[in-house]
Amino acid sequence: MRILKDAAKQYLPERLSGALRELLHPGSTKPLERITYDQDGLITMHNCDFMHQDAFTRAYLAGDVLGSWFGGKVHWRVHVLFWAAERALRLGGDFIECGVHLGGFSRAVVEYVDFGRLTDRTFYLLDSFEGVSKEHLSEEEKKRGILDYEYANDYEAVCRTFQQFDNVKIIKGLIPDSLSQVDCENVGFLSIDLNSAVPEIAAAEFFWERLLPGATVVLDDYGWEKHLAQKHAFDKFAESRNVPILSLPTGQGVIIKP
Ligand SMILES: C[S@@+](CC[C@H](N)C(=O)[O-])C[C@H]1O[C@@H](n2cnc3c(N)ncnc32)[C@H](O)[C@@H]1O
User: Fold this and answer.
1) Chain Cα centroid distance, residue 124
2) 78 within 8 A of 108, measured Cβ to Cβ
3) Does residue 118 register a pLDDT over 60?
């Protein structure tokens, strides 16, 4: 019996071994099995009080109402972006997002750090507003259904969303071609979410020398099965620069510029 118990503990996922324990010894499972977060491909019993704090909920809502996330709940991913943005507040530098859609992440970040008051900084938002370019996709990416996403491609709506912020600059065009329009030297925050490896690597290469030491790069798609090509490309990118990528259970990858 002891051997069986040990094997169950070692090889079964916690929820399954908990269920087994409950079957064998009813009433013995601890409140430990309480789930605190179950959305967006992530289930955990760990503390996520951050998502109930006023500043968080207000900023999250500012992004959520735009419909950028197709109705999905992405609190933990947004939490990671807020953390990166707060670091950039202390560090200095401009903010960049490559892949904006309807502005969900970027509008939430603007609200959270009150970006409008940072008159000496610019938040650059880059998007083709035409979706992913077929020419950029490998056969593997096509097979994985990268072209299935149906983006709103609504440039005017994004302009309206940010019109009250003089320091938000929207750059419409395909990356990498549009990168030359980014006239900044120092970057403190970089969010990359293009769903396609070729332009993502081009953006990372373009911004790498402009990133301040300590700046955070958040790769939205790094750990998602559908986006394996992006993970492979970024693993190579990181290896050649001798930096590690932190793989998060949200599906994001994080790089800190040395
Ligand atoms: C997943 S969405 C971005 C979601 C966004 N971060 C949010 O907060 O909702 C990906 C976006 O990348 C854009 N995109 C894809 N490939 C691009 C490229 N090569 N250049 C510019 N934009 C691109 C698409 O038009 C789409 O709006």
Assistant:
1) 16
2) yes
3) yes
The confidence band for 2, taking pLDDT boundaries of 50, 70 and 90, is low
Indicate whether 119 and 188 sit together in one domain: yes
Tokens (6 digits) for 63:
């992004």
For range 201-221, the mean pLDDT: 98
Q: Is the CB of 100 under 6 A from ligand 1?
A: yes
The pTM of the full predicted model, rounded to 2 decimals, is 0.90
> 125: Cβ below 6 Å to ligand 1?
no
110 CB near ligand 1 (under 6 Å): no
Kindly state whether residue 39 falls inside one of the protein's structural domains.
Answer: no
User: Are 197 and 174 in contact, with CB atoms under 8 Å apart?
Assistant: no
Query: Which residue range is the domain that position 14 belongs to?
Result: 2-34
Query: Best mutation site among 124, 127, 134, 142 for ligand 1, i.e. most ligand atoms within 8 A of its Cβ?
Result: 127
Q: Report the phi/psi class of residue 114: left, alpha or beta, with left for phi > 0 and alpha for psi in -120 to 50.
A: left
Nearest residue (by CA) to ligand 1, atom 6, is 100
Please determine, for residue 14, whether its predicted confidence score (pLDDT) is greater than 90: no
Q: Which of helix, strand or coil describes residue 247?
A: strand
Find the mean pLDDT for residues 50-66: 98
So what's the pLDDT on residue 23? 74
Where residue 31 falls among pLDDT bands split at 50, 70, 90?
A: low
Query: How many domains, the chain?
Result: 2
> Helix, strand or coil for residue 211?
strand
Question: Do residues 71 and 158 both lie within one domain?
Answer: yes
Give the per-residue pLDDT at 122: 98
161 and 235 together in one domain: yes
Residues 6 and 89 in one domain: no
| 64/176 same-domain check | yes
- Give me the CATH number covering residue 237: 3.40.50.150
10 and 66 together in one domain? no
